[in-house]
Amino acid sequence: MLLYKRPFAFFTPASLDFFCSLAFLKTAFLPFLQSSSHRRAADKALRYPMAVGLNKGHKVTKNVSKPRHSRRRGCLTKHTKFVRDMIREVCGFAPYERRAMELLKVSKDKRALKFIKKRVSTHIRAKRKREELSNVLAAMRKATKKD
């Protein structure tokens, strides 16, 4: 049995490049390497692109369902907004809100947040309250500018 040190010693370098190219290997050897069942699966994959994977299976149209009533929790209604505005107009601001507004006036946003957080107990509520108070201050500035 003959063992060559270089398996393609009888090819020239140019022909070696051609034979080792990916295109040649695909065209020349792939049909022989694949069994008939593999070839059938390859044909099927071309005809039905969604046969495997995340979106596989029979295509159907989805039913459009109404959003659940429980999803609307926390949404601001017209009535609630009206009641809150009325209370704000009649009662004004709480003492801690007035102090926070003073801090916001002198650009101490971080200090105001820490102060409000101590009063309303959570960081998210404090951020929301600070945003609300800064919006009130902006509206007041806008109103004084108009006059």
TrEMBL record:
Subcellular localization, as worded in the UniProt entry: Cytoplasm, Cytosol
GO biological process terms held by the UniProt record: translation
Major site of localization recorded for this protein: cytoplasm
Domain of life the protein comes from: Eukaryota
Keywords: Cytoplasm, Ribonucleoprotein, Ribosomal protein
InterPro entries membership: Ribosomal_eL36 (IPR000509), Ribosomal_eL36_sf (IPR038097)
Short name of one Pfam family: Ribosomal_L36e
Single annotated GO MF: structural constituent of ribosome
Gene Ontology CC annotation, any one: cytosolic large ribosomal subunit
Stored Gene3D superfamilies: 60S ribosomal protein L36 (1.10.10.1760)
Quaternary context: Component of the large ribosomal subunit.
Family: Belongs to the eukaryotic ribosomal protein eL36 family.
Role played: Component of the large ribosomal subunit. The ribosome is a large ribonucleoprotein complex responsible for the synthesis of proteins in the cell.
Official protein name in the record: 60S ribosomal protein L36
Organism name: Mus spicilegus (Mound-building mouse)
